[in-house]
Amino acid sequence: MSDQPAIAIVGASGRMGRMLIQTVLDSDQATLAGVTERAGHEWIGKDLGACMGGADLGVTVSDDPLEVFAKAQAVIDFTSPDATVEHAALAAQARAVHVIGTTGMDDSHLAKLSAAARHAPIIRAGNMSLGVNLLVQLTRKVAQALDEDFDIEVVEAHHRHKVDAPSGTALMLGEAAAEGRGVALDDVADRGRDGITGARKRGDIGFSAIRGGDVVGEHDVIFAAEGERIVLRHLATDRRIFARGAVKAAIWGQGKNPGEYDMMDVLGL
Ligand SMILES: NC(=O)C1=CN([C@@H]2O[C@H](COP(=O)(O)OP(=O)(O)OC[C@H]3O[C@@H](n4cnc5c(N)ncnc54)[C@H](O)[C@@H]3O)[C@@H](O)[C@H]2O)C=CC1
Ligand SMILES: O=C(O)C1=N[C@H](C(=O)O)C[C@H](O)C1
Known about the structure:
Order of helices and strands: EHEHHEHEHEHEHHEEEEHEH
Number of strands: 11
Helix content: 25-40%
Number of helices: 10
Family: Belongs to the DapB family.
Pathway: Amino-acid biosynthesis; L-lysine biosynthesis via DAP pathway; (S)-tetrahydrodipicolinate from L-aspartate: step 4/4
Bound molecules: 1,4-dihydronicotinamide adenine dinucleotide, the ligand O=C(O)C1=N[C@H](C(=O)O)C[C@H](O)C1
Radius of gyration: 20 Å
GO biological process, one term: lysine biosynthetic process via diaminopimelate
Structural class: alpha/beta
Active site: 158, 162
Pfam family, one: DapB_N
Largest sheet: 6 strands, parallel
Low-confidence stretches: none
Strand order of the largest sheet: 2-1-3-4-5-11
């Protein structure tokens, strides 16, 4: 076996799936173990290269994750919460590092991931880019330095196909702001303003989501006081930043003990 990890990509035809496959194929530090799509998808049983509009790669798109994971040291998963939970159990069975970018998880999904992480490492982040993970750190620091005279608002924009809101990144930023303030996000989050909402509650952390066109991902954390405003901003213009982070995580996770990790661990932030 080569010392480069073989990586399985699930959700091969997705916006992130395609980007991840290309990133692994271009990497000199990892190889492609195989790819999956959901049962019934038109790519199943076909050659991946042809599906992606190029020459044959000799890799057949599978709908059997366990068969693909058995050949892999890592699985990268940007699919849906229900699919990710199923993949987590199978990746744990195969003792493969599971890198999860999927967002929109609820508490029951997270509990199942924690159970799987008892058997193999899981690295999960709502955003795998270096820039956003730095922004998370900055947000925590700024929130720590300012008092509640500064109202905190997180504003995010994404493409028209995104199905969850607020984005995983917005929630990471909100969590960091709450931590900086020494409060629990659940106690202060204001996620759905509409109609006669009443004046803003002091100390709340507000979230707003814009959906349209092909926006890759934009996040502002606004600290607004009387007479001044600080805006921390990240603009993603290319999904490669997420794919590079995920492949880095898959490599970093090799040899790690079972448990739950995030991109702060991978990036050493
Ligand atoms: N953490 C991060 O850095 C990022 C996270 N994301 C998240 O990744 C997820 C996917 O995003 P996109 O690629 O834009 O969505 P997409 O809808 O383009 O792709 C998802 C793919 O997963 C496939 N899929 C669904 N169930 C499956 C199953 N059981 N087995 C195999 N494949 C299955 C779908 O058929 C689809 O091709 C979302 O939750 C999104 O928020 C997206 C970009 C960056
Ligand atoms: O769905 C997306 O596209 C993205 N999802 C992630 C999120 O929910 O924050 C990361 C990135 O913003 C793109």
